[in-house]
Predict the structure of Hypoxic response protein 1.
Amino acid sequence: MPSLPSAGSLPISTVTGDPVARVVGDASVADAANAMIADNVGAIVIGDDDRPTALISERDVVRLVATGKDPNVVPALEVASTKLVWCDAAATIDEVANRMMEHYIRHILVDRDGTPAGIVSARDLLGVYCSEADLDLN
């Protein structure tokens, strides 16, 4: 029986799901948090540029709330990350996991032919590796 390729050798595009979730450029932190809940995601891009320049995550929202500032009045861009890390849709899951570890990040944007194809989270990768582990155990 031929062996299946390891999950880590699959292209990241196999776990890139829905289109990139976005909020408008002047969104508040509360707007971004509500959009994350509505889209069931942990990070969301700010603005409608073809090539996003800012991303806000659940952790960014928590950090702001912990300071006591009002998320309804603080612009999302004020707490968002602007040092975005990208990977190509053809990169393997292992390559992307290593890139995320190198940059100590939980979310990475996926590029396909110069267009954002999705956002992959550490949780997404954990799901892939856990599924493979389950197959190995059975």
Residues 53 and 101 are 21 Å apart (CA to CA). The chain has a mean pLDDT of 90.
